[in-house]
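Backbone shape codes:
***
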Amino acid sequence: MALVPGLLAMPTVLANALLSFVPDRTVPVRGPDRVGVVSPMFDEEAGAAAALGSLLDQSEPFDELAVSVNGGTDRTLEVVRRTLAERGFARVYAAPAPGLAAHLERWHAEAGPAVVVLDHAAPISKSDSINAVLAGGFLACERVLVVDGDTVFDPGFLANLKDDFYRLRVQRRRGARRYVIEDVALQSGAVTSLPPGPGAPMAGLISRARSGEYAVAALLRTGQTARLGRGRVFGASRLYTVVGCGFAARRDCFPMPSDTLTEDHDFTLAVQNEPVSERRVTVAELAERGFRVKLGGAEIDAAEFFDPQDEVVLRRTSDARFVAGALMRTEDPANLAGYLRQVERWNGGGVENALKRLAPSGPRGLRPNVAFAVAAAQFENLFGLALLLLALPVALGVNFALPGYGTALTGLAAWLGLDLLVTLLLVAAGSLRLWRAQGLAGGRLLGRALGATARATLPLLVLRPLGAVAYVAGAARALADLPRRRRRARLDAKVTITWERPRAVRGRQVSIHTTTVALSMLLVNVALFAVAAYLGEATRPGYKTTWRLIHTAQPVRAEDHVALPLPLAITPLAELLEPGAQAGAAHGGDREAAAWAPVTSDEPLAEAEPDGATLQLVLALPDQPGEEGLSAYCSVGFTARSAPTRRLLGAGAAAYRPLSYWERLVLARLAPLAAHLEEAATAYDVPAELLLRVLVNESYLDPLAVGPTQDLGLAQVTDDALTLLRALSDDPLSPFANPRFFDGPFNVFDPDFSLCAGAAKLAWARSQPGGEDERFAYARYINPLEGVQRNALNPVHAELVVALEELRPLADALTAVFAAYREEPQRLTDQERALLDVYRAVGEGQLSLSAAYLTVGELVERFGIDDAALYDAVRERLYGLGETTASL
């Protein structure tokens, strides 16, 4: 079983689950082997009678029974004697056991097996007691069934197990058919948990969890013993461990290892590592020895099943088989302390046995199938542990510092949800297999399996993480004991006497060792989380706050604010050119203008002396003050922190020179926007020249621009940018607070709104770590979250950042024109003055943005600047004005 949440991270778990559905192409063969039972008992007073009685009630009786009372402190021996007497057995012999510090009793019944009872004077381990029974000759059978004294067996347990002592496989070789009777070395029964009874909620939880674990284990053990082809790995069994409370093995597989905490696991691996041999046998020999092929429940004599000329091979294998029909019920711990002790012992033994096989002794080495079983189990344990101790806290720490990276709690919930689903399916499939093997079918089978799944899955998931603690605790003990283990041939017997009845262990205190391990794991988790969070914050300063602003605020979708044309509230142009007409321009596109005082330069605009036919349009503009205010979204006074002085385009006229054709084209695009650009730059305290370069780099000053990633408008805003700006604007404590920005409807193509959005976004970007460097500020403008990574520019945006710097000569030329227009307007060309007269008219409130675009469009046409497509699109698409307004 996987130790930590995330069964999907356990590849061989899922692989074995799938292999469990590989059909078994063999059929059972009954042989002449006699079966002897060894039942070691240590303080089994409470359960010995039920366990012994279930053995004596088998539908197919065994031949011999040896009960080994292993030096406990309770009345186990009395219970065994009483149970035998009640079943008609009589003690016929009692004497010291030869060669053992034990008392020997022989019991006899007319219709029962021969029974031997060994009472050891001092505690002895399970494996040593089994080896003592076999080495002392107290059992003489060919098959040995090892059972625990707290386990109750179904009546058909032994009968089902016998069907897997021998299996018949048909092979085809060079067109000829060959029969192979496989003498299987090891058979494991299936197990489920004995319910603890009422009044023990914790014991009930553990029992239900174990029932689910046993169901999954049934599925996995079936897959581990499934064989595919004849390869050295999948052509043999890969059983990790038998069910220790009930398994059978050939007599020659013993003795059991006694130098490990988990002798059953060690024994399983050792048996599967034995060599394989085969010999050809005749049909007559098979019939003489009593072999019978079992088909459809009927046993057919070998002489009747095979033809005399058939090639039959008897193969003595080292394989193991899992028998789902051989069901037993065992006790499980009554409290968490006992549960942890038991699982720690199992895991510690698994690590011991893996270390034991790192450098296998003997001439054979480690067979590939055994190496695979050991390596796969330890890999999955270590991989699961790495996920829990390393990957999970690091991922959570990274996500804490850098939301969107690592593992968010929602992602963890999804992971656990998927794990729940997979676990549910595995428990259900295992339950179906178990209860189908007991003869249930149809509705009874489905109801039993679904009920077991519903009761077991959640407790299994709740207790599973404790397995990680138990694994680390067990592994720590095994590693610490490794040097001592190498210095001695075997373990101290006292160390291996750890298989007391789980419910007889009443202590509720978790051991100091296990507690220390759990606290250490917790500290490692916390430390890794903290380090990952710290490094994440240091690597991407400001990312966390930005992510939360974008993803926790009310989202703003740009596609909800793109309806065109913009509603106009301007005086008809025919009236605009009439002397005395009121230029009632409601600035800001689709909003009515609000009442606020416009901010003007400290230096009055110099009077220009326009001349030439191309300037008649500008001269005809009414020289009257417009409505108060310039921007409906970000006029000075709306924002929390505006610039102390007006942010103007142009720092001095000395650098002025007449503009080139391309520069005049850009100036024409800028003229309707420049006053609003300065207003936005002042409101958000950003350099007007930098804002100009950003807008040119983003959209070439096209108000209808649509970027390749659906960035929209002059400022190329996105959903994330709008959400970020709204969160900043609506927060009264933010330095970028602007309650008017998103107070009503807006349109991302509205030049007024887009200029304000660009200025606000640039101001925010400049406030972030490293924002004093315009390269970092612009990278964050492009992508607030990913523009700056590991304190460096994101290479994805490097080309755009370089382009921003390359726009500096153009921006310098344009701003010099604005400076000269204020200081020495006579130095400008007629075309430059005409365009900047439009800028002045907008700034003084005489022209709305729509009227300014129409005016500049006419000027551009008269100047011979080939940019009519932009102004036609603005006129028709942005403002919905037809051809009749193309000329004033």
